[in-house]
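Q: what sequence does this backbone want?
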């Protein structure tokens, strides 16, 4: 590819990149500003329409508040359907006005008489106002009479003292509101529609959708999730697809009623100005590329012509003509290139002359070098033979050192094994001494515990003896109680006999005497049972005393045996400590021997290493001598080749015109 074409392509590519970057940046910025402006415009329009709708609803609520204020001081007897009908006539958008009292009575301005089982307090319009204690808007519905959308509005009716008298309500026709929503005009066939808080369509360009839930409309079923989203939020901006077109929607919830007003516009309307901007930017880029290509071509022509002139002179130099000279015009880089080319040709001419002289000298020197190299090769062969004999002797010495080192290493391993064994024995002896010391301590503790057990056993014997004595004393008391119970029984029997003699007057005394006799017999039986238990307890205590005395004797024997065991452990500890000291001394001697053996191994290794190094160096010197000999032969051969090359160089240099 020629330089001219390269320059045109490079400059064109850079220009296109810069223009594309600037164009894309400007386009994105314009797009952002356009979308932001359109969104702000839609939000402003939405706010204006929603305020208008909300104002209309509040005006209906205000009328109902004024009616409630007028009825506040009116007696119940004066509130008749004709009165409510008169208030209704004042506003043609109110289809009905009615009042439900707290006692369940109902007055309707249309003259409708409710059935006997009709209770307004169960109706939605009554409940919402009663619970909220303020003006409320109910769920819109399709009026049966007018076949138009209506919404119930209700407000509490209070007397002058603030007590609730009932709820006054009105059915407000939404046709004006529906017409207002349908009259909203937006760009590109945009439209608006109104939903209540439950999703029922109150106003829509398509009248077939009115009073239906959005889920019941086939055209809106694909946007069911979107409808749920806007019902759950206060306001926002959404993008969705409708019949294959991308739509932009802004929505806002009316605070007073909770209804949602939304404006819809095709997204292509927003981007329509951007298409014109795209065409403008494309035209600018095309014209800019043509201008850049033309300017680049002119610049390339101006740059390339001087370079082509220098290139022609370079081709002549390549053919061997060193008499050429490039023209130098101006002071730019191309002029500097031509001046540099001329300087290069001058330098090359001087170099060729110098090469001719050196080539002649080189041919003569190469012949002398060939003769000297042959003589050096013969001397190197003789040295290589002597070095080979030295290497063989060094290898034999290294083999002997290897055998000695192997024997010494075997001895070192055996000594190391003995040292480790002695160390293990010393450690085991130390552990044995420690264990024996602990055993002695445990025996001493056992002696102390056995002594405590003997003392406790003596105390137990004394306590048991006291218990035995107390049991005998209790037995004597039980005998005394048994005797008293027998005497009481006899006295009760005598009393019963005397009461029998007394006849009817002593019957009560006879009953008491009978009860006393029964208690005396029960006391005697209980005393005998306690006596039996005391006798058994005394027998058991005697057995415990005998066992405790035998245990005390055994404990004393145990104390004596444990004391003897402690003395035996002491002798074992002394013997083990002595053995441990002797084993440590043996281990120390073995470590000393191992250290000396290691020193011997180190010395042998040094000898072996030195022998191997000597053999290796001898072989290295021998190989180097052989290589030197071969190198001398190569030098001689190279010298001959160099003489040939010198002749060729002289022939090549002679081709240049100087």
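A:
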């Amino acid at each position: 590819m020629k330089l001219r074409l390269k320059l045109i392509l490079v400059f064109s590519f850079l220009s296109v990149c810069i223009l594309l970057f600037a164009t894309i940046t400007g386009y994105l910025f314009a797009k952002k500003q356009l979308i932001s402006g359109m969104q702000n415009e839609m939000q402003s329009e939405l706010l204006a329409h929603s305020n208008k709708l909300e104002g209309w609803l509040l005006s209906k609520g205000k009328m109902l508040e004024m009616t409630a204020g007028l009825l506040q001081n009116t007696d119940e007897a004066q509130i008749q359907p004709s009165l409510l009908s008169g208030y209704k006539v004042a506003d043609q958008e109110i289809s009905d006005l009615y009042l439900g009292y707290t006692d369940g009575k109902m007055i309707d301005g249309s003259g409708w008489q409710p059935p006997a089982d009709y209770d307004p307090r169960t109706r939605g319009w009554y409940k919402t106002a009663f619970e909220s204690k303020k003006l409320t808007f109910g769920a819109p519905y399709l009026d049966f009479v007018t076949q138009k959308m209506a919404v119930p509005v209700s407000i509490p009716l209070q007397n002058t003292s603030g007590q609730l008298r009932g709820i006054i309500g009105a059915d407000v026709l939404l046709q004006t509101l529906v017409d207002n929503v349908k009259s909203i005009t937006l760009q590109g066939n945009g439209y608006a529609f109104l939903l209540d808080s439950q999703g029922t369509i109150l106003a829509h360009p398509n009248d077939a959708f009115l009073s239906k839930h959005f889920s019941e409309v086939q055209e809106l079923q694909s946007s069911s999730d979107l409808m749920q989203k806007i019902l759950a939020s206060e306001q926002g901006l959404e993008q969705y697809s409708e019949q294959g077109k991308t739509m932009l929607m802004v929505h806002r919830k009316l605070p007073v009623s909770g209804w949602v007003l939304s404006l819809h516009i095709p997204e292509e309307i927003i981007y329509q100005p951007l298409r014109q901007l795209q065409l403008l930017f494309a035209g600018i880029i095309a014209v800019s590329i043509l201008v850049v290509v033309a300017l680049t071509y002119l610049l390339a022509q101006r740059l390339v012509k001087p370079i082509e002139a220098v290139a022609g002179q370079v081709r002549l130099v390549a053919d061997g003509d060193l008499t050429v000279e490039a023209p130098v015009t101006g002071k730019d880089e191309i002029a500097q290139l031509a001046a540099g080319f001329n300087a290069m040709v001058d330098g090359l001419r001087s170099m060729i002359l110098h090469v001719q002289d050196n080539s002649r000298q080189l041919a003569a020197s190469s012949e002398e070098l060939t003769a000297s190299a042959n003589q050096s090769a013969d001397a190197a062969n003789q040295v290589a033979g002597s070095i080979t004999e030295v290497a063989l002797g060094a290898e034999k010495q290294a083999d002997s050192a290897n055998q000695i080192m192997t024997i010494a290493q075997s001895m070192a391993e055996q000594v190391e094994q003995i040292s480790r064994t002695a160390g293990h024995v010393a450690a085991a002896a130390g552990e044995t001494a420690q264990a024996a010391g602990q055993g002695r301590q445990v025996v001493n503790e056992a002696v102390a515990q056995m002594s405590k057990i003997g003392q406790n056993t003596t105390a137990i014997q004394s306590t048991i003896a006291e218990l035995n004595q107390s049991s005998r004393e209790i037995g004597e008391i039980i005998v005394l109680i048994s005797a008293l119970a027998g005497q009481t029984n006899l006295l009760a029997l005598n009393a019963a006999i005397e009461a029998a003699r007394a006849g009817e007057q002593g019957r009560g005394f006879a009953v008491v005497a009978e009860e006393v006799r029964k208690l005396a017999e029960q006391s005697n039986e209980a005393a005998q049972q306690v006596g039996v238990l005391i006798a058994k307890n005394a027998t058991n205590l005697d057995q415990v005393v005998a066992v405790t005395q035998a245990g005390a004797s055994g404990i004393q024997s145990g104390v004596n045996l444990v004391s003897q065991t402690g003395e035996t452990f002491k002798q074992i500890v002394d013997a083990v400590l002595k053995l441990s000291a002797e084993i440590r001394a043996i281990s120390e001697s073995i470590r000393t021997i191992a250290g000396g053996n290691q020193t011997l191994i180190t010395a042998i290794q040094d000898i072996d290493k030195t022998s191997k190094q000597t053999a290796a160096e001898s072989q290295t010197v021998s190989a180097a001598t052989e290589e030197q000999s071969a190198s001398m032969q190569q030098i001689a051969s190279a010298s001959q080749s160099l003489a040939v090359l010198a002749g060729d160089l002289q022939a090549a240099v002679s081709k240049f015109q100087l």
